[in-house]
Amino acid sequence: MYDYLCYTKTIIEVQNIVKEYTLGGTVFRALRGLNLKIDQGEFVSIVGKSGSGKSTLMHIIGLLDRPSSGSALFAGKETGHLADAELAKLRSNEIGFVFQSFNLLARTSTLDNVLLPAVYTTKNYEVKQKALDLLARVGLSDKLKNTPAQLSGGQQQRVAIARALMNDPAIILADEPTGNLDTKSGQEVLKLLEDLHQEGKTIVIVTHDDDVASNANRIVRLMDGEIVYDKSI
Amino acid sequence: MKTYFRLALRSLLLNKVRSLLTMVGIIIGVGAVIILTSLVGGLEKQIKQTFESLGTNSLFVFAGSVGNGDGGPTGLPVNKLTYEMVNKLKIIPGVVHASAIVELSGSAVYGNKELKNVELRAVDSNFDQIYNLEITRGRFFNQGEVSGGKMVAVIGETVRKELFPNQDPLGKELKLKDKRFTIIGVPEAKGSVFGQDSDKAAYIPYTTARQRFQVERPTYIFIKTTDTTVIKKVKRDVEKTLLRVLTADDFSVRTQEEGIKFFQNILGVLASALGGIAGVSLLVGGVGIMNIMFVSVTERTREIGLRKAVGANSRDILTQFLLEAMILSLVGGVLGVGFGILVSFGMSSFIDTSLNYLYVGLSFGVSAVIGIVFGVAPAIRASRLDPIIALRYE
């Protein structure tokens, strides 16, 4: 379905998107007519303070949410009109999420956590071997049977990254990936993302931390729902 | 589907104790339906056997207008049956035998030993043949003893064991309802009929009961015909004869078949009622499942959010949670069937039970449906969770 990904350069494109929430009768505008394009192979940081709209933007890019107006395109295709199930399928096959709080399934082994996306994908591949390879890639081959509670924060986030890579997505979206980690573990995780980028993956990090943001090749700064800075380094 | 099944099973196994406790309601519900209906089934079998042992050429005359097979008894009748009627019934063509049967109860005393609540059956001299009573010691009372209203008694095995444990009871005198009787026979033990010891009985001539215990009315009249072909005709003649002295409301004549049907109808109602009551506990079990599934959905909000983020759609989530509820109730149903069958087999050593496979199937079926019915609401709630909100849930 998305074979033409190989030919198109732009993966993410939002045009003039507005996102409004109604909170207790008053309309809150999280995004105010924002435009952004992310090409294949880019390593982008979306940075901004709390309330700047960066999370809302990430949800829309990640197809977890729809804009109130404007259009969101994935690989050149408009996604606003897609049914929930179609969005779910796109998420499954093309987007890998990494969260601040890891969001690993408790009491579930490292291996099974990495295998989770395979349950819902329509892609065909050797599931178990892929999971083992990915865990080797993030240096956790010796922790296959461990549950999240038996892993350090850094290790848990590496499991989450392995999980995000499971279905070989077109893009990795990392929401404050180092937010719950100590400096050293945070560095390791960022190094891992950088390596993935080197291998050609498209990476988007959402963060409030300028130091973290500086690891990317392009920084997009948000303030009050608008882009105030967008520069490649 | 296999994957969803494995997912559902996995999360149930993660909470083994909780899953088991949730199933208890279903286990008890299904088990209770099976146990209660098998008890009623056992009772029905007993009654049927008792009737059938009398042969298909039997008729019974009961006091009052007893339910006619499609209704229940119409209250307690006033007994207007008399011993004289029995003699009139005896001469109806096709009747081989007619006898008044009186059922009393009282204590049996020998020396310083007393046995309370002995069933006292006052009957005619050929009762042993009609009721297939095999006399193993001594003999049954004869026509002469009946006509003479003699104080003779045949005692059941339980009475013999309790009062004459180490001696021959024949020729000994015992007191039945404070009257002295000479023991002339002991029949073969018959065992328990639905928890009631049918050997805790004594048989005496009906004439004796009438004179000594001032029993004015037979409890019922038992008639045997030459064969089954005349039974309808004899029934009509019996009714005609009795209608000369009684009104239609004063008595009812039942063939063995009608008797069985009558009891079967009562027991059918009883089985449905008991099954229904037990079925309510199945419903309660269902509510238990719903409750725990709601708890589970709330607890696993983040998990649901994550699953949606990595590509699960609403239907995937719905299927997973619905399957969990269904597995709970199905496994509960299977365990309940096992529990019910085990208990009713266990009970069969001291009380008659007869498994009713209709109710076994029915209760299992209901338990399966309950999983779907009570699992739907929590599963829908899970499937509708917004992944963004679910992922933020603390």
From TrEMBL, chain A:
Keyword Plastid: no
Keyword Cytoplasm: no
Superkingdom of this protein's organism: Bacteria
Molecular-function annotations in GO: ATP binding; ATP hydrolysis activity; transmembrane transporter activity
Pfam families listed in its UniProt record: ABC_tran
SUPFAM superfamilies, per database record: P-loop containing nucleoside triphosphate hydrolases
PROSITE patterns, per database record: ABC_TRANSPORTER_1, ABC_TRANSPORTER_2
Xref: InterPro entries: AAA+_ATPase (IPR003593), ABC_transporter-like_ATP-bd (IPR003439), ABC_transporter-like_CS (IPR017871), MacB-like_ATP-bd (IPR017911), P-loop_NTPase (IPR027417)
SMART domains: AAA
Entry coiled-coil feature ranges: none
Sequence ranges assigned to domain ABC transporter in this UniProt record: 12-233
Gene Ontology cellular component list: membrane protein complex
Keyword tags: ATP-binding, Nucleotide-binding, Transport
Gene3D superfamilies (alphabetical): P-loop containing nucleotide triphosphate hydrolases
Cited PANTHER family: ABC TRANSPORTER ATP-BINDING PROTEIN MG467-RELATED, LIPOPROTEIN-RELEASING SYSTEM ATP-BINDING PROTEIN LOLD
Family, similarity comment: Belongs to the ABC transporter superfamily.
Protein name in UniProt: ABC transporter ATPase
Origin species: candidate division WWE3 bacterium GW2011_GWC2_44_9
TrEMBL record, chain B:
Gene Ontology CC annotations of this record: plasma membrane
GO MF entries: transmembrane transporter activity
Start and end residues of each ABC3 transporter permease C-terminal domain: 277-387
Keyword terms of this UniProt record: Cell membrane, Membrane, Transmembrane, Transmembrane helix
Membrane topology: Multi-pass membrane protein
Transmembrane segments annotated in the record for this chain: 20-43, 266-296, 317-345, 357-380
KW Transmembrane helix (keyword) present: yes
Major site of localization recorded for this protein: membrane
Xref: InterPro entries: ABC3_permease_C (IPR003838), MacB_PCD (IPR025857), Macrolide_Exporter_MacB (IPR050250)
Domain (MacB-like periplasmic core): residue spans on this chain: 19-240
Signal peptide extent: none
Subcellular location: Cell membrane
Protein family: Belongs to the ABC-4 integral membrane protein family.
Protein name listed in UniProt: FtsX-like permease family protein
Species in which this protein is naturally found: candidate division WWE3 bacterium
Lineage of the organism: Bacteria, Katanobacteria
